[in-house]
Design goal:
Helix content is 43%, strand content 28%. It has 140 residues and is α+β, with helices and mostly antiparallel strands. The chain has a 4-stranded antiparallel β-sheet with strand order 1-2-3-4. The chain starts with a helix and ends with a strand.
Length: 140
Amino acid sequence: MKRMQAGFSIITAIFLIVVLAALGAFAVSMFRVQQAAAALDELGARAYQAAQAGIEWGAWQVLRGPGTCAAATGNLALPGSLSPFVVSVTCASTVHTEAGNPVTIYRLTATACNQPAGACPNPAPGADYVERQVQGMVEQ
């Protein structure tokens, strides 16, 4: 009777080793996914800040002289931690009359991305592509 029970603990040990190895592999896989998501989240925040910088640049172009909407259109290369991003800024203007006075409204659109194809947005992006677009209006 002792001979038949001798292999039972080895089967239990092998089962526990397999289960623990599967749990370890799952934990490593989840860690990688979490790290990739955090990296993309950071890139998204930086892309948003780059787009905000594009709006500020466009507003400055418009406000430094009347009728400079065309000067507010272009691509920006940013320094520092935003250097992987290129910002494409476009401007459109409309003229309205308020209380008998002409008022020009400038609509600025800034699109920032980290893999530009000359400009943003990129029609064929890679795996880690991040893009953010911000719009703003300036009245003059």
